[in-house]
Automatic annotation (TrEMBL):
Protein source organism: Hibiscus syriacus (Rose of Sharon)
Entry keyword set: ATP-binding, Nucleotide-binding, Transport
Signal sequence, start to end: none
Protein name: ABC transporter G family member 11
Single GO term (MF): ATP binding
Length: 261
């Protein structure tokens, strides 16, 4: 098998397309049956791609492969190209949001955002740092909670959905052109899930960055599902369907509804 090529994008290009072809993945390397088998697809700037399928189908593994986060003791094959190039990722132009919302309970919403900006960006003055942080907080719909403490066990604070949006907010402070999200609605009720995904979908409507957004997601509601433009449906590490949401029910209705009915 051909070695998996490293993910790359060029910072001078507005909008980043990611294409992957015949991606296979084995973990650990001694296992003969691939966890991912011959996957091919793409994601385009300004669009949301949902990676879906039953538990254990390889959603998390595919997301990590595309984000360049796979373990070193694995066997990988296939191609992953960013704007047609096979080079390394540059810092700050991609972001990855995990399922875990880890914050210091006593901090306000604004504080972790300004701290992150100060540590990773060369912004000349504190006022500009604060302004940029507040702009991003508003993008994620957290402006009313800007001075609210995160909270935790035994103390009032943000709701689960607000904490998830804060996690996303911190990761998009550098204006990444590629955004990867691992189960962004995990542990949330239907209303909170919709607000989180609606905030994510709205990102590309508020600026001209043209983000490419890829999310693994499990059994979303109909409202959340239709916020995506494209779908990659997996089963046992293999492709069941890849294409637009509008064509998904027409092409594979029986396969699709067998997983999510």
């Amino acid at each position: 098998m051909k070695p998996l090529m490293q993910i790359h994008f060029r910072a001078d290009i507005v909008g980043l397309s990611i294409w992957f072809g015949n991606v296979n993945y084995l973990f650990p390397a001694s296992i003969r049956t691939p966890i991912l088998q011959g996957l091919t697809g793409f994601a385009s700037p300004g669009e949301l791609l949902a990676i879906m399928g039953p538990s254990g189908c390889g959603k998390y593994t595919l997301l990590n492969a595309l984000a360049g986060r796979l373990e070193p003791n694995t066997r990988q094959a296939g191609e992953i190209l960013i704007n047609g190039h096979e080079q390394n990722m540059a810092y700050g132009t991609s972001a990855y949001v995990t399922q875990d919302d880890a914050f210091i309970h006593t901090l306000t919403v604004r504080k972790p955002c300004t701290t992150r900006l100060s540590s990773c960006c060369r912004i000349p003055c504190r006022g500009q740092t604060r302004k940029r942080a507040e702009m991003t907080i508003r993008e994620m719909g957290l402006q009313k909670a800007m001075n609210t403490r995160v909270g935790g066990w035994g103390s009032k604070g943000l709701s689960g959905g607000e904490k998830r949006r804060l996690s996303i907010c911190i990761e998009i402070l550098t204006c990444p052109k590629l955004l990867f999200l691992d189960e962004p609605t995990s542990g949330l009720d239907s209303a909170a899930s919709y607000h989180v995904m609606k905030s994510i979908a709205s990102l590309n409507q508020r600026d001209d960055i043209g983000r490419t957004i890829i999310a693994s997601i499990h059994q979303p509601s109909s409202e959340v599902f239709h916020l995506f433009q494209n779908l990659f449906l997996l089963s046992a590490g293999e492709t069941v369907y890849f294409g637009t949401l509008s064509a998904a029910n027409l092409v594979t209705p029986s396969l699709f509804f067998s997983y999510y009915s």
